[in-house]
Each structure stands twice: as structure tokens, then as C-alpha cells.
Amino acid sequence: MKLIELSCNNSSFKTINFKPSGVTIIKGTRSDNERSSVNGVGKTLAAKLVNYCLGSRKTIDVLRKNVPDWIFELTFSLNGVTHCIERKADNSLLALNEEKIKYTDLIRWFNENGSFAIPEDITSVTFRSLLSRFLRTSNEDCVDPIKTNKEQDCEALLRNLFLLGGDYHLAQEKIRLKKEYDRLTSEQRAFQNNEILSKILRSGTNPRVRLNSLEQTISSLEQDINNLNVADNYRLIEQQADEETQKMRNLEKDIAILKFQITEVEKSMQDTPDITNEQLLQMYSGLKMIFKQEALEHFDSVERFHFSLAKRRKQYLERDKQKLLLEKQEKEMSYEQVSQVRDSYLKQLEGKKALDDYSVLVNELAKLKEEKNRLLEYVNFEDINNSAKLSIKSQITLNDENANEYTNREPLYEYDRMFRVLSSMLYPHHDAGIILENNTGFNQQKFNLIVQIQGHDSDGINEARIVLYDWLLLTKGINHHMKFLWHDSRLFANIDEFARARWFEYVLEEAKQQDKQYIATINTENYETTYATLTEEKRQLLDEAVCLELTQDNNLLGKTLTN
Fold first, then answer.
1. What is the pLDDT of residues 416-454, one digit of tens each?
2. 13: buried, middle or exposed (CB in 10 Å: 19+, 13-18, 0-12)?
3. Which fold has domain 1-115+481-563?
4. Residues contacting 541, CB < 8 A, separation 6+
């Protein structure tokens, strides 16, 4: 794929005509205004517009907000055939070769007919995911040579191996195996979250121990239920028996009271009269001193009256006793009759259970069986799950052995050699190289792909290793037909001016010879310091590479937009 032209339906837009091969430079220059800046003139926006036309999912917010009706048009060649994509700023229009197309269809077209030979057996590799290695449009894309914005480490490795011609199958297999292992672990965890299992596991009981205990309990309970004699009217009979029992208790209470009353009467009958004959006579004799003799002449009559009272009292008590005894006898007979009735009811219930008691036992059995079934499912699942996980671990081990043999053959040796050559051109006294190490960690990362220049912790050298690595992918990588590489000014800003000059001196010649497009945006300060260290011949080539100069007064869109 080569870029030909980026244009717009609005005449104020600065059309970019890309050189068919060699270096194309878009330069940000200060205007005559002393306070002018090279920022915000459209250098990075140009790259974003190309990316937008090549299928970026997101719109460019500042354009969607300010110029929604502008239609941007990217003309490019692919395998010698010219194509054109039109896309409106608000994404309401998308066309390929003057025919409207759905976004998903455009992405499918790029995947099938684009610049990358993507086989069917590879996952996580698409036109869009690979394009970011040749068109870094965000700050996050310019942090690491291997990984671009929002990529997982394992996906970034897979995509780089694909472009380097490395054994991406080993990397893809480890991703698959680890994902499968994680899926099994997740399923096991979800299984354990079942209410029954969760309770057992929280108690610290081993599921197999609980299962053995359940089998014994269920067997015993089933036997009890089978031997159970259920009475449909159990509760009615039980209620009648309870009523008779209550009658017996009431009769027992009445009988006890009668017994007490009889005892008291008998005690009263045994008591002697309050005054004996002798005591009565002594009292009567004493009265002679007070009363006249005539008044006391009837002592015998008094004596007879006193004893007649005592006799009548005893007769009354005897009569009360007989009455109480008769009542007691009647109560005892009633008690015996009620007892016989109650006993008959109890005999009917003997060895039988109520229907609701039976239901309770049946429900308890059902609960225990459900728990048993869940435990059996879990134990069987755990056996299968653990067996599958062991198999996966075994496959990962084999994968590690194959990867170890692969890395020992130094499959990226030629890339390593060329990277060291390029690095020594910019930093002659810094160690550099590309290393592929076997990653035996229990993760999705099959290899550690290391792109290193000594001191790359500093900003300038870090950006330089990204520039050099991208160039290697463009010129020496395989599985692609990409002919262009775009580097934004942010990658050049911190690179040492002499290293930057040596880079442009090299790429001005190599891009032309290899029929590649090297597109760079650069601000005027970096351009001028680079220019100053070049030979006259290279300066002329650098000047000829500039296709567009942008200033605040003459920016890419021809107008100032509000954020």
C-alpha cells in the first residue's frame, strides 16, 4: 500500500500529495508573528486523517464538532491498483471507489484485500491492528516499539511475530491454552458459588467427605420413610386424644380436691367436744357464787343439750363424708371411662405418623438428594476439570520445550544484526539488539521480545529505537505489502540533533532505493537543526522532500477550530 493524495471537498483544506517513493515531509513552521507556534497547525492531524480514512472506528472529535459536512478523500494504491476512500467528518458518509459501503464491509475488505497476508488460522491479527505499526497516531503509540495503544502484551507479541516472520503459532497456542485454563478455573469458581457448595466449602468440609455422609443419611431416611405407616386422619385422632387427656386432667384435679375434703371431714369427726362433762360441771359450780340457786337448777338439762349438739354435728359430718365419697366414686368412674376412650385413640396412632410429618421427611429427603446431586456434579466436574487443567499444563510444558528449541536457533538473528547496524549509525557507542526469549511463566506471553538500545530509558533514545524498529518492519518484515511508514514529529522532538540528522541522511537515500514511502511530520526547529548538520547534497534532498509547510496562519484546514 502506498499513499497518493489526501484531499477534502472544502477548498480551504491543504491537499497533501505524497511522493511516490522516498521521503515526504510535512513541516510545521512559525509564521511571521513572533508569538506564533508550530503546534496545532495540522501535522499530527494529517496522520489522523489518513488513519480515519483507513478505517479508524472513532471520528476525530474536533472535526466532527466544527466541520461535520467536510468529506475527506484518501487516494492510495494497493498491489498496483488505485483506490479511493471518502469519509465524512461526522461519519455519515463512507465510500470506497465512489460506492457507499458499510464500515464493517470496509474493514472486511481491508482484511481480505489489504496490505497484509493474514491467514485464516491466526487470531487477533487484523488490518487495523497491524496498521498501527506503520502509522502511529497517538501518544500511547509512541511509548514502546512492540506495543501500541490499548494492546495486551500477548496480542502485541503475536502481531510482531507475524510481521517478523517468527513462529506466531507457538505464541498463539500458549494464548489459547492459558485462556482455556482460565476458562476452566472460572467455571470451577462459578460452580463453587452455588449456595449448597458454597456453604459446604465455607465450613471447611471436603465435598467428598460430605458426599459419603449424605449417602448414609439418605439410605437411613429412605428406610424410615418406607417403614412409615401414615394415617390420613392422624391429626384429628391426635386432637381427640388430646381433648380426652385434658378431661382426665380435669377429673384428676376434681378427685384430688374431693379426697382432700373427705380427709378434712374425717379429721373433724375424730375431734372431741369443745367442753367435757367435768369442765362443764366445774364451770356450772362456779356460777353458784354469782347466780341464785334457782337459776342454776337446770344443769342436767344443759348437759343433755350440749351433748345433743355434739351428736348432731357428728351426724352432719358423716352425711357430708358419704356425699363426698359418692361424688369421688362418680369422678373416678368418669376418669376410667375417659381414660379408656383416650387409650383407644392412642392405640389408633400407635406406629403411625401424620401426613404432614411424612411430608416433612419426604421434603428433607428431597433436599438431601439435591445436595447429593449437586455434590456429585461438582465432584465429577472437578475430576474432569482438574484432569483437563493438568492436560493443559502438560501442553504448556511441551509448548515451552518447543519454544526453547526455537529460541535457541536465534530465529531473529538477522533482524538483530540489522538493528545493531542501524543503532550504531545513530549511537555508535551504545549496545543494541533484538532478542527473543522463551517466557516460561504461567501466562499468555510465549516470548519476551526485547528491542533495546543502551540508555533507552531516556526519551530521545527510546523514540529512536521505535523509529529504527518500525523501519525494519517496513523494509525487512514479511507477511505484508506495506510501502509506507509514517512518523509523527513527537518521535523526533527529543532525539539528539546529530542522531536525527544521521537518520534523515540515511532514510533519504534508502527509502528511494527500496521504493518505500517514508512520511515524516517535523517542526521547524528540529528541521533546521537537522538541516544544519547535513551535507549540501542531503540538504537539497531534504528540501525537495518537503511537500507542505504549515503555519498557524496557513494550517492544514485553512481555518482555526475550537475544541
1. 999 999 999 999 999 999 999 999 999 999 999 999 999
2. buried
3. Rossmann fold (3.40.50)
4. 23, 508, 509
C-alpha–C-alpha distance, residues 150 and 169, integer Å: 22
CB 45 within 8 A of CB 85: no
* Residue found by looking up cell 544484526 in the block: 417
Secondary element (H or E) of residue 83: strand 81-88
Instruction: Please say whether the beta carbons of 553 and 36 come within 8 A.
Output: yes
Q: Is 504 exposed, middle or buried (0-12, 13-18, 19+ CB in 10 A)?
A: buried
Which helix (DSSP H) or strand (DSSP E) does residue 292 occupy? none
Provide mean pLDDT across the span 244-266. Answer: 85
Q: At what angle do helices 234-270 and 299-349 cross, to 10 degrees?
A: 160
Q: Specify the residue for cell string 410429618.
A: 357
State residue 515 phi and psi, 5-degree precision: 55, 45
Convert the pLDDT of each residue in 40-89 to its tens digit: 789 999 999 999 999 999 999 999 999 999 999 999 999 889 999 999 99
Among 244-248, 284-288, 289-293, the least confident range: 289-293
The number of beta carbons lying within 10 Å of the beta carbon of residue 236 is: 12
φ/ψ of residue 276, rounded to 5 = -80, 170
How wide is the angle at C-alpha 545 spanned by C-alphas 542 and 551, nearest 5°?
Answer: 95
